[in-house]
Design brief:
The chain has 245 residues and is α/β, with parallel strands linked by helices. The protein contains nine helices and seven strands; from the N terminus they run αβαββαβαβαβαααβα.
């Protein structure tokens, strides 16, 4: 059998590349359409998706050269409740973030950090929940991340977790999404205080997106490219500290 030998320089480069990638921190960004990257349009919907470098998770990824940010964002995802209806191939129970998170963690192990940003879709018409209930649901999801040690027969430890409180909605009256979200506008402003209180109660690491950005996409629900950039850059030093620890 003919043997092939790689030149030493190429072999060393390959080993160095493998070592560098093995040392990279792995971060899972788990959220709704603002994590998926919905690009707001004047019609409300259907909409496209911002590219990787524009979304807040991509901005964060680019700001952390020794980390990889994996995006698991889903349009309409809620905290611990099902969606309103089935949508094509997606069943209403698939919109339940608490039910989906364990498998998302298992799919992407090993992970150093899970970042959760949910809550806005819990304020849709016909569903509007009290901000305190939403906060409790999201922080319960975050607490459960600690149980992901050696998940599905692996040897990996449970990742750390960071909760991002969603920015308040803006004026939702300008597009066809108003019927779905306008009833939740006032409650969305109260999410900041509710999430802060729950973070204090649980001791789970928390970042309040409303302190650094608003929601100025035309539909009042989704981030503009500028919002994504602001959030991603603001998160970078926080996440860097967590993965260093």
């Amino acid at each position: 059998m003919k043997q092939t030998f790689l030149p030493a320089a190429i072999l060393l480069t390959a080993i160095s590349s493998f070592t560098a990638s093995a040392d990279e921190a792995r971060i899972l960004a788990f959220g709704d359409s603002n994590t998926w990257g919905w690009s707001p349009v004047s019609e409300g919907y259907p909409a496209g998706r911002f590219n990787d470098d524009t979304r807040w998770a991509g901005v964060l990824d680019n700001a952390l050269p020794e980390a990889t940010v994996i995006v698991d964002g889903m349009i309409g995802r809620r905290s611990d409740i099902d969606g309103r209806n089935d949508n094509g191939l997606v069943r209403k129970e698939d919109f339940n973030g608490a039910a989906a998170l364990p498998a998302a963690i298992a799919r992407n192990m090993p992970l150093d950090l899970v970042v959760i940003m949910l809550g806005t879709n819990d304020l849709q018409a016909g569903t509007v929940r009290a901000p305190a209930d939403i906060a409790r649901a999201v922080f319960k999801m975050a607490a459960n991340v600690s149980q992901a040690e050696k998940t599905v027969f692996t040897r990996y430890p449970a990742p750390d977790v960071l909760v991002i409180g969603p920015a308040a909605m803006g004026d939702t009256s300008k597009t066809g999404l108003s019927g779905l979200f306008q009833a939740g506008e006032a409650a969305s402003v109260q999410l900041s205080a509710a999430f802060t209180q729950e973070a204090t109660r649980t001791g789970i690491t928390f970042f309040d997106a409303s302190k650094v950005t608003d929601t100025d996409g035309i539909d009042g629900v989704h981030f503009s490219a500028s919002n994504h950039e602001t959030l991603g850059k603001a998160l970078a030093p926080v996440v860097q500290t967590l993965i260093n620890d």
